[in-house]
Amino acid sequence: MLVASGTSQTYGIGERVYSIGEPSDEMLVLLQGKMVVTSAGGEELGDLGPGMLTGEMGVFTNQPRSANISSVDRSVAVVIARNALLSVLASNQIIHVRILDNIVEIMSERLSATNLQNDKLRKQIMQLEQEDEDDYEQTGGVGGDMASEFDEYSGDEDE
Fold it and tell me: With respect to CATH, is domain 3-91 assigned 3.30.565.10?
């Protein structure tokens, strides 16, 4: 019923599907191909394969797009407009609950993955900070032994 309310769309290699800041007036379910999710700076945040959806967060929250989505393979998706989605949800309570359950599961998985990534980055930062502290202690602080070399220098080169 939900998929039937959407339209089939094909995307070419490198084609931009969604851009940060655009209105979130539709979502898509990827049927074939691969898409990549990137930040405003171009950093790859994740990828999408068949069966995955994107754009749902903005459709439900009415917030603009929070990431760029581009097709990296020839891709086929079912695009579902917000109005069509809301109509299906309003017409069938069972579908409504199942879709919301799926959305909660997807968002929970994404949050867990983000938390793991944050923990990994935090550990890397702590490791780098510890290495900096160790280097600082090994060199005797700022300037290392150079300060004592200057103290020993009398300034008289004729001696």
Answer: no
